[in-house]
Each structure stands twice: as structure tokens, then as C-alpha cells.
Input
Amino acid sequence: MDGVDAQPIHVKFGDPVESVFDEEAPDFIAIGPVKIDGLSPWGFVPIREIGTIAAIGTLPGKILSMFIIEGLCLGVLGTLSGCILGVAIVWLLNTAKITFNFGQQTGLILSATVQPSDLAIISLIVILVSVIASLQPAVKASRMEPIVALRHV
Output
């Protein structure tokens, strides 16, 4: 974008696309350049619930561990569902016996494979990333004052 002074567009979640661009535009075009204010990881943390948990005497370390365990569980569930779906798609592709031509070779049969070692390495990476991603909201939640959190509307 040489010479273009691009300014961010701030839109509240649920605003119609037409109000942003002053014209009719499909949603998939508008999503890229628009920063939606409510979609940060911290935006989804239930602040009042954190305040209630802290007000009844839960230690900050326990609140921190609750968020990290939640991130771990989400990572494990996402990994399991992704692995099952991926293996199912590979099985369907191999069962369908899809043929294609490549260069001067004709009638090649598509044969997809999944290595268990690849699944294991990718699964570990995904789980690790989900735990790391849960650290920032976990630290913020554990440092939050109960009175401030309970006042949050």
C-alpha cells in the first residue's frame, strides 16, 4: 500500500456491513479490513464470574490454574476432533479412488496417507499453543481485584 494512509475501522460486533462501507458489500469482503472490538481473547473472559470466585476466597494461583487447565482442555478437545476429522477425510479420499492426470501420465489414483508420528507432533504443538494462549487471560484474571470485577457490567 504505497502512499495510502490507511486508518483502522472500528466496528462494534453486530453492526451491519453497509454502515461501515456506505454501500452493500458481502460479509466475507468486510471481515478482512475491519477490527471488531469484541473479539480479543480478554473480551470473552467472564469478568463478573472471576470477581465472584475471587470474592469467596479463591487464591490467585488457583484462578490462574483454572484458566490454564481450561486452555489445556480446549487444546486437547480441538486436537482430538481435528485428528478424527482429518483421518476420516483421508479415509474417504482413499475410498473414493479419485483419478487424475499429471503431465503425460494418465489415470493416476490419488492416495493420501497420514503418519501417526506427524499426528503426534502436530497434536503436541497445538496443545502447547493453546496452553500458551491461555496464559495472558489467566494472569490478568488472577491479578484482578474482586471489587473491580464485581462492579464490571
Remarks:
- The radius of gyration is 23 Å.
